[in-house]
Design brief:
The structure is a homodimer. By secondary structure, the first copy, chain A, is mainly alpha-helical. Chain A has one domain: Arc Repressor Mutant, subunit A. In chain A, a hairpin with an 8-residue loop joins strand 2 and strand 3. The longest helix of chain A is centred in the last third of the chain and has 23 residues. Chain A is globular and about 55 Å long. The mean pLDDT of chain A is about 95. Chains A and B meet through helix 1, helix 5 and helix 6 of A and helix 1, helix 5 and helix 6 of B. Chain A binds a DNA duplex through helix 4.
DNA sequence: ATCATTTAGTTACCTAGGGTAACTGAAATG
DNA sequence: CATTTCAGTTACCCTAGGTAACTAAATGAT
């Protein structure tokens, strides 16, 4: 079987475009949503924690968080270490989380409608395996 | 089951980064590779044909093709309709196709090594279904 | 035949998104 | 107390793609 990656990659743009379309109703993009999701599920975090968790560089998170603070979705709280910027969701942020989460879940249901549960599960579990394999092959230089 | 799209999207960056790393040995990127692959499998084509096939806008293909012509991977051939730009792979392009194809196939094998064939197949067949479903939901405005 | 319309391609401009390097200020190390 | 490490930001770079406006060529319709 060949062309797995090709098919995988071809699906990216339609999916991300649809999600960003959905998110644009709330003034955010999918990449910012990742931060919202993180804060909801992991609680208040520093930018470095968020960056590490999602394997992106610090400036990427600085930018996403700046936008979310401008939108009043996220706010800074003070900690002991004054180097750190600890952020959490505002009430607005919590509300947005819930509506967007609902929208995404519904979209997910609609576009997986005709796919049997066990097949979804197989694919769902393949993704992290591929990710692991990529990481392992990177370790070998 | 929830978070399918999340997992799907999270895998995109590692994969595309690895592929672009691989392609950079030949001076191309994955998005340009798509054009090379198209020409190899569909033969000489116009830019509009390529754009339509991959569901991107014309300027996107103009840019990819410009780069590939600069690299001597692709060349223009003349047709009757002087509006059209018909392009095909050069000999260099053919050679690059073969080596890159080999590299991709090998990478694909390595990162799917521990995934049973039937599981790969399930995932492989899910992708176009999701794509179809997205298109159908777009038709409903 | 000619004029309007459609089509192929290009250009200019804008956007999202992310990486790297260099920096600041604060904490930790020793 | 000096050096090093760490968190975050800034400036600059890149890829990638979309939209709108345009040119030139081909179609179509009168």
């Amino acid at each position: 079987m060949e062309g797995f990656l090709q098919r995988f990659l071809a699906l990216y743009r339609p999916v991300i475009t649809r999600l960003n379309e959905l998110m644009s109703n709330y003034g955010i993009t999918y990449s910012q949503w990742i931060v919202i999701y993180h804060l909801k599920h992991r609680g208040a975090s520093t930018l470095v924690e968020i960056a590490a968790r999602h394997e992106v560089e610090k400036p990427t998170i600085t930018r996403r968080v700046k936008k979310l603070m401008d939108l009043g979705i996220v706010e800074q709280i003070l900690g002991n270490d004054k180097r750190e910027k600890i952020i959490q969701l505002t009430d607005t942020g919590e509300n947005i989380y819930h509506v967007v989460r609902k929208d995404i879940t519904e979209l997910e249901f609609r576009i997986m409608d005709n796919i049997p549960e066990h097949e979804r599960k197989v694919a769902y579990e393949i993704f992290p395996k591929i990710d692991d394999n990529l990481k392992k092959e990177k370790e070998l230089y």
